[in-house]
Amino acid sequence: MSESQLRQDLVRYARSMYQRGYSSGGAGNISLKLPDGNVLATPTNSSFGDLDPDTLSKVTMTGELLAGEKASKEILMHLAIYRQRPQCGGIVHLHSPWLTALSCLPGLDNENALPPITPYQVMRVGKLPVVRYLPPGSPVIAEEVEKLAAEHNSKLLANHGPIISGKDIREAVFNAEELEETARLYFMLKPFGMNSQEEKRMPEIVVYAVEGRSAEQKKTLMVKITEAVVESFGVERDRVVVSIVETKASEKSRGGVLYCERGK
């Protein structure tokens, strides 16, 4: 896709979120990774509702401005995520009402601010870790986000709002929508209690093999399977369970011939 089309896409998705109340005034920022490896982002003090595709900030992965208006100070958060998640192609940071309200609650589970209410939330977002409160624009926020980025495609900034990524800008927006809707459901259900998705419903892959592979070979296989499931299912890495069940060659056969006797 051309840079011109990607600029139009960013403006279109931002306007859609603005019209639905996900962003107000100059709050929030959105970015996408360009084919040339640079990043396109909303400028500082800009509104999601009236972005100009020609004045969007174009920056390098180190934050150097290449074209357009000055980027938001929060671009540092975006760049931190892109560095840690090479598969990431789009990022949305919102001050959306339900997730921002969630970020202000006391006693949040810092490892996962939202219980796994729906399978769609689990598949798209997974866990939602909390980043401790820091003043907006602080470079330390980017440092804290970067620590979590490799394992989580969404983070909740305490008393601030969510930052959510996806393989492209479209997926990032969809993930943001799913997470905001889940936060709304959480507040609706909280007075009554709720059922949650159990860990056993997460993707689990079992590999059956004849024993004999080294620990390193098995580790490599499990890593590659995990990466494939993350990419194909869009789930968080720590939700994927991979097991290798080994059998002795004398206890496994094919076509009635024991594996220990094959090739003799």
TrEMBL record:
Catalyzed chemical reaction(s): 3-dehydro-4-O-phospho-L-erythronate + H(+) = dihydroxyacetone phosphate + CO2; 3-dehydro-4-O-phospho-D-erythronate + H(+) = dihydroxyacetone phosphate + CO2
Alphabetical list of SUPFAM superfamilies matching this protein: AraD/HMP-PK domain-like, Tautomerase/MIF
EC number(s) per entry: 4.1.1.104
UniProt keywords, alphabetically: Carbohydrate metabolism, Isomerase, Lyase, Metal-binding, Zinc
GO MF entry, a single one: metal ion binding
Gene Ontology cellular-component annotations: cytosol
Leader peptide range in chain numbering: none
GO biological process: pentose catabolic process
Superkingdom classification of source: Bacteria
UniProt cofactor(s): Zn(2+)
Domain Class II aldolase/adducin N-terminal: residue ranges: 8-187
Function: Catalyzes the decarboxylation of 3-oxo-tetronate 4-phosphate to dihydroxyacetone phosphate (DHAP) and CO(2).
Protein family according to the UniProt entry: Belongs to the aldolase class II family. AraD/FucA subfamily.
Protein name, entry field: 3-oxo-tetronate 4-phosphate decarboxylase
Upper classification of the organism: Bacteria, Pseudomonadati, Pseudomonadota, Gammaproteobacteria, Enterobacterales
